[in-house]
Amino acid sequence: SENKISTLPKSFCELQNLHRLELRNNQIKKLPKGIIELLNLKLLDLSGNYVNELEIERIKYHLPNCKILV
Asked: The pTM is what?
């Protein structure tokens, strides 16, 4: 959190056992497409970033058990 990150490496999509991803207060505009493959993800905190609503809806659709904070 709060690291001025603007992009997330695609390698994050390989972390299949990841349960929480807290990225609040950074400068992220877009997430890797493979983020929807993180089926064990329960919390994705994107608050304080610039990810658009369409992207958020796509993630919600593919990860219905994941709580997404914006």
From this structure: 0.92
